[in-house]
Amino acid sequence: MQASLQAKHNSGAANWQTRLREWWFRHRSLIGFVFIAPWFAGLIIFDVMPFIYNLYLSFTDYQIGTRGAPPWIGLDNYIKIFTEDKFFSKSMYNTVYYLGFSVPLRLFLAFFIALILNLRVRGMQIYRTLFYVPSVVPLIAATVIFAGLLNTRYGMINQLFVLVGIPPVRWLSSPDWIKPSLIILSLWGFGAQMIIFLAGLQSIPQDLYEAAAIDGGGSLRRLRHITVPLMTPTIFFNLLIGVIGGFQVFLQVFVMIDTNGGPLQAGLVYMLHVYNKAFRDFEFGYAAALSVILFLIIFFFTVALVYSSNRWVYYGDEESNEA
Amino acid sequence: MIEQPSRKFLRHVLVYAVLTLGAIVMMVPLLWTVSTSLKTRDQVSIRRLELIPDPIALENYPNLFEVQPMLRFTGNTMIIVVASLFGALVPCTLAGYAFARIPFPGRKYLFPILLATMMLPYVVRIIPLFLFFDEIGWTRTFGPLILPRLLGHNAFYIFLYRQFFRGIPDDIYDSARIDGCSEFGVWWRIFMPMSRPVLAAVSIFAFEFAWNDFLNPLIYVGSSQNLWTLALGLNALKGFEGADSSLNIVMTFSMFMIIPMLVVFYFGQKHLITGVTASGSLKG
Asked: Is there a contact between A124 and B15 (Cβ–Cβ < 8 Å)?
């Protein structure tokens, strides 16, 4: 009696376990949720919630010392940005000026040097390393180095100028030269993009060039009709990343100039304006509104660029949107 | 396509001239940094161009540790680096594996969200995150700097892993599963050892970003000097126009930040290119 009950109990347990195992076998892909759990937690805590809360903040007058729910002021922050804030247009102008020069120049330099290195020149690896090393230098160190190089009195550039008889330039303290200085600093790091271009160039099949050579295409025509079209995905990718990053330029000005962007705010970039409003003046609601505007600009720019890419980016024969 | 020898020769000269000139221009800032880091205060202030200092002030390097709390700065930075490496190697690979190999329900909706977060600029999150961490009393601690990193909060790394894992042949995955390996087992015992190039590449990125991070330490620990990272220490030391006779120490500090990066990239450059191109990140 005792034994048979035990056996029945066991078989019940086995049955239950078998069913669980079968259920699990059919739904085994649910284990994926365990795998993505840390990422998903981060997505909610560090992306989704802040993004929504930021939007909410931008309609409030949240300042330092605000307790409880911040007062809702509707569109007042946005109206103030477009009507009263003279630093808004100034900082936007500076930012667009900066990225309008630095992004295309960087791309051009990176592409140009990658093309030359791809000619299979002797010592290519040494040159590649020399061009690449500056982009390994931490941005804060690069900025401090250029603050030194461009220093009016102790900097090497002006010492060189004096040597050849050019009057020294006040690179970092004259409103005319602050933005060019920032652009020069950004160009120093073109090596990272150059490496990406070089990898792309080396993956272009040689037989395309051989076919073109048989057809009698000159080197310029090969560049125009083979190399550039095949490189458009890489150019597109770098352009997009460059512009998104360029809109958020901050450290260089903060470290090399000052928190106000230097004389006449010639170096006041947009991100610095947001930073000042949030973390110097503690006007969090207002700064949130500024950040939303920057987000919209970046968003529309990205959409426009992606949209235009259908016309100029070559995706080959493969499906460009495979998931 | 027969080129005359003289024309070919000329083209060669032109190519090497452009490359050499360019390489010199690129290296001069670094050479100047090395040179200035080896100058005495007096040599800096003579305001004349001297690339090779005389005498060479090697003592600037040991002196740096006396005038600046370098060990504490480095230790603080390493806390962030280690958190970053852990996040990049464990949670990120797990998520990349799931997105590549486990057809869990909702995957096709979550993957585009992952890609979208790569495009989400930090500027729209920075203020609420600060207020949130302030609310729970985490400002002036490392919490805000390490928690996102420990969780592997980086869509780009996950994307790279996912691309790489998708490139591993189905046969390998299937036979491991038939042999009774669990998903965790496949991830840890098969996929991870096969993914050294991309693991190395992502680790280098993680090290670099943690080592270089400036804005986050500035916001969260900028006001408590004993929590400063190297980047904050260097920023505080930098001179302003006109008062730069300590330029030599600033450049010594810069070199202290640059050299580890050079070492990391020297040993990792091979993986960096193979890892990233094998992940096909440039093709989408």
From this structure: no
CATH topology of domain B68-278: MetI-like fold (1.10.3720)
CB A277 within 8 A of CB A287: yes
Domain ranges of chain A: 2-49, 81-312
Residue in B26, B125, B241 closest to A54 by CB? B125
For residues A194 and A115, what is the distance between their CA atoms, to the nearest angstrom? 9
Secondary structure of residue A171 in the 3-state scheme: coil
C-alpha B157/C-alpha B148 separation (Å) is: 13
* Beta carbons of B77 and B69 less than 8 angstroms apart: no
CB A35, CB B114: distance < 8 Å: no
CATH of domain A81-312: 1.10.3720.10
Burial of B246 (0-12, 13-18, 19+ CB in 10 A): middle
Residue A48 pLDDT class (50, 70, 90 cuts): very high
Coil, helix or strand for A72? Answer: strand
Alpha carbon of residue A7 to chain centroid: 66
Selecting from A32, A173, A294 the residue whose C-beta is nearest the C-beta of B104 gives A32
* Tens of pLDDT, residues B91-124: 999 999 999 999 999 999 999 999 999 888 999 9
Helix (H, G, I), strand (E, B) or coil at A60: strand
The helix/strand/coil state of B112 is helix
pLDDT in tens, A206-240: 888 888 777 777 778 888 888 898 899 889 989 99
Whose CA is closest to A274, among A74, A75, A77, A91? Answer: A91
Q: Which two tokens stand for residue B115?
A: 């890609």
Closest partner CB to A148 (pick from B15, B98, B251): B251
Tell if the CB–CB gap between A153 and B211 is shorter than 8 Å.
Answer: no
Identify all chain A residues contacting B135, using CB atoms and an 8 Å cutoff: none
Q: With residue B91 as reference, give the H or E element that holds it.
A: helix B91-101
Q: Does A166 touch chain B (CB under 8 A)?
A: no
User: Residue B117 corresponds to which tokens in the numbers above?
Assistant: 């977060």
Q: Whole-angstrom Cα distance, residue B87 to residue B218?
A: 22
The answer to whether A113 and A98 are in contact (CB under 8 A) is no
Locate B88 and state its tokens: 């990049």
Domain parsing of chain B, residue ranges: 5-37, 68-278
| Nearest-Cα residue of chain A relative to residue B33 | A145
